[in-house]
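re: that complex we talked abt at group meeting.

here r the seqs, copy pasted straight from the sheet so there may be weird spacing, ignore it
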Amino acid sequence: MTQQSTPSATCLPAGEASDFQNPDPLVIAFCCNWCSYTGADLAGTSRLQYPPNARIIRVMCSGMVHPNMVIDALTKGADGVLICGCHPGDCHYIDGNLKAEKRAEAIKLMLEDFGLEPERFRLEWVSASEGPRFAAVMQEMIDGVKRLPPSSYKTG
Amino acid sequence: MAAKVAEEWLNICGGCEVSILDIGDTLLDLLPSLEFVHMPVLMDHKYHGQTGEGDPHKIEIPAADVGIVSGGIRNEKEKAVAQAMRSSCKTLISLGSCACFGGIPAMANMWTTEELHEKVYRDSKTTVKSDTPNKDLPPLTDRVYALEEVVKVDLSIPGCPPSPDMIKEALLCLLQGKPFSLPEKSVCDECPTKREKKASGGDLKRPLEAMAFKQGVPWEETRCYMEQGYLCLGPVTKAGCAGQTTEQGEAKVPRCIKGYMPCRGCFGPVKKGANPLVDMMGALSSIGLKPDQVVDRRAMLSRYVGGQGRLKPLPAKPVPVKK
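got the structure back, here u go
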């Protein structure tokens, strides 16, 4: 299990507007059906606030998100990609999230090969009961992407 | 009546032409049904008339039923020759990995033409600095192109070099009016080596490190090279280099595997438009080898397929605003 950031339960304060080079980024979030998508649901039903820049794509497991999908999204204009899965040990399919973790290493290396900043990709664990954590992860990710210039792959 | 064949070589080493000759005895049986009308590697046939009496702005290539082009496109002359071949030939074949995907020369696509000129004529420590030569030379195109990016191609025979059997098969199919294509299968689908279990956390070995094999034993007893820890591009490379089953009924063994070397990926991606670099990095991580140990990743995993936009200069990083 890797060390991961532990965002505070409440939403982080939004960054200073002047820090943002890309105030309106597009972030693709792949959320696993069993934990993270339900976590996103909880964030919604709890009326938690987080930036609206993410497009959530529900997948059955974080382990099915092939590096192709992430690289495709990033080289076709997305400013960032987030993969959310169950905490290690909680996977509905036993070890799907561990597969995602291995793939994430390869994806991080490939960001370099495609000339992308490391902040553009993240893998986070969010369980079904962690609505506030989901909102915080979103806030953190989107703030990070906002501080970067728009993706160099973005056209028009 | 013999089918007229025109052959051209563009940005290439000449190995594909050697492969045509390597068809061997069967070539003698084929020859009565083929008539070579243009082939710079064998015949003296000039583009603007034999004594230069023709139009210097028009490339003349005699009309042919089949055109074979090897090599990708690196300069304006090659582009013009490719277009002339297309308009003179009814069916156009791209022969070899360079024509199909850009090939080895397309690794230069990782840099801009200006950077290449700078490095070759001025930056290199062992070179006397000079201007980029431009007199009487065709200008370079902005990058290396695969043939199909410039003209329509009817049939592709990949490989570095392509296998003589496949060239023969393709020509026979054309002569008999049958379709010819390669199935969407990977080298692993045809590879007979034994797969036991996935490596886990193993170090990646260099291809020259001793491989565990015994010559003369059936292939089914030789362990998969990837499971032994070698970087083998089999999972992301199109199958077909082995050709058909031998007359003795032996199983097909991919060519490099047969030589106890891992696959290098010269047959290009399994599916049209796929990127072997991304696929292979995914495969490496799920097999359990360490993807960060691949030396010179971009070039290594896109060795033969740098055309068609797969290798590009990295986008210039915008300078972040200072706080």
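couple things i noticed - The radius of gyration of chain B is 22 Å. Chain B has two domains: 3-175, 183-311.
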